[in-house]
Amino acid sequence: MKLFSALLAACCILISCNNAAKTETSDTESKVKKDSIVFPFTAKYSLNWQPGDEKNAAIVLNCLKKYVDGDIKGCTAYFADTAEFIADKFHFKGSRDSLSKIIADMRNASVSVTKEFDSWMTVYYPHKKDTWVTLWYTEKMTDKKGKTDSIYYTDDVLVKDGKILKYNEKQRAFPEPLKKK
Asked: From CA 66, how far away is CA 77, in angstroms rounded?
């Protein structure tokens, strides 16, 4: 009987310790949620996002791999029937076939293209049911005259139902190398 009482007391102590820890964590979590941050600007898009399905990143990366390889038909197969492409001083919204011609002209201007990725991130906006993939990378290209150039890109890509609906490309040109005097 003494053994049973000792075991019962030990169980009670363990249970009460576990409950206290849970309550403390809950208080901390609720304090974090109650504190609101006042931002000096209002975001156009929601700040309520969560990590997205990485399969969407694979769709975008496979599309870009086909582009690098010069497979325009394979590249544009990842786009929806109607898609939008936004770039520096460029905006297109229309059929995949028309977009394919534009992408072919861009790719055919270079004899070689490589992409070196810093990172990518997939986010999901539950209230809109939107998945966006953001990419950070450097593209190096050599034109038909042998001139090599590189551009740094940050792309935001909207993917729905396994297809690219919107491709928003932002670029930063690298400064010219310093010339020796």
From this structure: 10
pLDDT along the chain (181 residues), means of 10: 45 48 47 74 91 98 98 98 97 98 97 98 96 98 96 98 98 88 72
Q: How many domains does the chain fold into?
A: 2
Q: How far apart are CA 44 and CA 49, in angstroms?
A: 13
Clarify whether residues 65 and 146 are in a common domain: yes
| pLDDT number for residue 34 | 58
Asked whether 68 and 127 are in contact (CB, 8 A), the reply is no
H/E stretch holding 100: helix 96-108
Say which residue the tokens 């986010």 belong to: 123
Domain that holds residue 60: 50-173
**Residue partners of 119: CB distance under 8 A and separation at least 6:** 135, 136
Are residues 75 and 19 part of one domain?
Answer: no
Q: What is the pTM of this model?
A: 0.78
